[in-house]
Amino acid sequence: MEKEKLEFFKQLLLKRREEILKEVMETKKELTEIGEPLPDALDQATRESNLAFELRLRDREQKLLKKIEKALKKIEEGTYGICEACGTEIDEKRLIARPEATLCIDCKRAQERMERIKGE
């Protein structure tokens, strides 16, 4: 991959990482600001449900952060944009949509088919 394109994807990944870290800090701040229990049980349940949802989102984002870090490492190593399954180049459109992608679209589809078969 050309140097300019690698730099583009590096900046895209760094921006996504920064956005996720910002959201994590906001959630952390919200957690520290939770005050006393609310007098209304419904309000308390709503707050706890919202908090649980936020924590699930942050868990997913933690996994995404690991993928972003892996992609950044691949850029440094010179292996970014190469499918881990078949070794072909990952289409640029796919990388723009998911810069942390490690599989080409054909291998990703095959992986998803296998997951569906195992899940049934």
UniProtKB/TrEMBL annotation:
Residues 78-113 form the Zinc finger DksA/TraR C4-type domain. The keyword Zinc-finger applies. Keywords: Cytoplasm, Metal-binding, Zinc, Zinc-finger. One of its GO terms (molecular function) is zinc ion binding. Residues 5-75 form the DnaK suppressor protein DksA N-terminal domain. Coiled coil: none annotated. A zinc finger (dksA C4-type) spans 83-107. SUPFAM superfamilies: DnaK suppressor protein DksA, alpha-hairpin domain (SSF109635), Glucocorticoid receptor-like (DNA-binding domain) (SSF57716). NCBIfam families: dksA (TIGR02420). PANTHER family: RNA POLYMERASE-BINDING TRANSCRIPTION FACTOR DKSA, RNA POLYMERASE-BINDING TRANSCRIPTION FACTOR DKSA-RELATED. This is Transcriptional regulator, TraR/DksA family. It comes from Thermodesulfobacterium geofontis (strain OPF15).
